Every structure is written in structure tokens, then in C-alpha cells.
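#lab-general

N.A. 3:47 PM
ok so I finally got the sequence cleaned up, no stray characters, all 379 residues accounted for. can someone with queue access submit it? mine expired

B.Y. 3:52 PM
send it over

N.A. 3:53 PM
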Amino acid sequence: MKLTIAVLAGDGIGPEVTQEATAILSVVADLGGHQFSFVPGLIGGVAITATGSPLPAATLDLSLDADAVFLGAVGDQTFASLPPAKRPEAGLLQIRQALGGFANLRPSVAYAALSGNSPLRPEVTEGADILFVRELLGGLYFGAPRWWDKTSSANGGGEAINTMRYTRDEVARVARVAFELARKRRKKVTSVDKANVLEVSQLWRATVTEIARDYPEITLEHQLVDSMAMHLMNIPRNFDVVLTENLFGDILSDEAAVITGSLGMLPSATIGGTVNLYEPVHGSGPDIAGTGRANPLGAILTAAMVLRHSADLEAEALAIEAAVQRVLSEGYRTADLARVSSAGGASSALPVVSTREMGKLVQQALTEATDRRQSMHAV
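B.Y. 4:20 PM
back already:
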């Protein structure tokens, strides 16, 4: 398998976690005889500093020429005074639109070894394994008209408008992604909307219901977004694939970090466009950049999604995920995870490893597991 990956490390802790993600992909390539090429590019604040643009033309070109794009993190308060269209975050919105990916996949898994990290009781989170499918190119973030009357605001008045807008085709295409993924999982889709109030949600619900007829083996249920926010916290095991529009998905998938115990554990993939875009969910973490305290596991799990969705290497993706689980089960933690261990009903401090050390531990676990499998096959 040959794979060219555009690597946009970005700002803050982005370069640190991206290094661990590309390192684990290199291990997979070495173990499996694959050829993975990594092509670096600039995005976000580092791109503004170097070129004046949050998404230089050269970065977009190399991304469009790649088989996949891996992004570390974008965000730098140094540029907060710039107009929104020129800030680092604009680069992220621009590349999403340019690549055309409309379905954002965000897994949220309750790892048994991290049950003490969630504020939820272990019996609530145990076994939870949710895949959010978030529509990414429509809704309030992109709908028009949108404006803010700042002049009136300065005089004590003011008005601002954002528009939630969807077409049937936009809903249908992301719904099909959710149903196709559910076929490979536990065969259930929960569609989230606010159909009791919003016409756009009524269109959403009607369209998802229509698409569901093509998937008779999949169970479809509808949830209002407010009740869904509650159910995520008290019955997360009840959900498999959760389908949402843009804003609801942004909020709910971040809320689901409570199930895992840290935003640093959450990977994501954006698919359906010209080139798939992959990025861990966490931000740029400028306060810990360069300290070795960043959690690379979200980025490493994102690397597994690269293999699953852009290389069709499911076994290798599962192997990375298993290696992460093994390292966690052995008690290793980064700073965001090293709170307490509730094993045996007693809480105790856990040792902390650095970003680099955690990456090496996962590489070692992956290599050892592969060696064991190869030895068993040889026998």
C-alpha cells in the first residue's frame, strides 16, 4: 500500500502530537511493508507568520495532491486582533471547504482503564462506544445571511443574524454515511434534531426517515438535541452511530469527551470530499505547548482512522487501537489522564509520562503485538 499524507502540524501542541501520529504510521508501514510518504505544510498561526495567510496556496495544493491530510491543531491568540477571515482558525474552515468533506466522524469510547477519569460513574460509562457523524459544511456555521450590526451595538442597540440552512440533498448524503457505518457496527442510528421547534430540523427528520427505508436492517431512532444531551450522560451505552447537523454535533461530541475522560483522547476524520481530512479533536493547547505534557493518544487514534478510511487497512487500524488500550491498561498516563485510579475501590495517584514517552509506549505495544501474531502464524 502506497499512501501520501499531507502533514499540517499547525500551532501549539500540534507539532508534538503530530510527531507521534506519524511515528506510529511509520511503524505500521515498516511492519507491513507499506510505503507511507509524509509531506509537510503550513496552516494556522505558523502559516500567518511565514506567509501572511492562514492557508497558503502551497499548502492547499499539496493537500489536494495527497491521499489524506493529517492536521495537528490550529489556534494562536497572538492573532486575536485580526479580522476573523485572517485568523488561524480561518485556515481550518478554508481547508475543510476546499477539500469538500461533509461528514465529520468523531468516536467516543469509554476505556475501562480510564473509568476513574470520567466524572460519570463507571457503571454508567462501561461499554459505551459511540460514533458521531456530524454534518460539517452546512447549518449555522455556513448559512447566509449572516451579519452583526456593530455600529448600532456601539450606540446601545444592535442586532446579529446567523442562518441555519440545509437542503434535502445535504441531509441525505450525510445520512447515508451514518447508515453505511452503522452496518459495520451495532446497526443502530440515532438522529438528533430540534424538530419540535425548527423547520430545518423538520426537513432533517423527514429526510433521514426517508433514507432509512434503504437500510431496513438498521434501527433508526430520533432524539431532540436537549434530551440527547441528557441521555449521553446517563445512558451512553444505548447509542451506536449518532447523526447530527453541524452545531448540534459540535456540542454533543465535545460533551461526549466526558465519557472518555479527556478531550485529548478524541480522534476525528472528515470524509466524503476530494481528500479526507484527519485531526484530533483537542485544540492547540498553547499553555502546555513545548512542555511535553500534551496527550498524543487522540492524534495516534486519528492515525488509525487514516488507515481505516483512506487506506482500507482495517486490521492495522484495530492494531493501533488495541495498542493504545494496552498501554492505558498498564497504567501509563499523560498529565491530563493522571488523576486517580479507582481500581479496587481505592484511589491512588498514577505515574505521568511525557508526550514522547507515551508515543514510544504505543509503538512498542504495537510492535510486540505484531511480532506475537507473526510468530503464531509461523508455527
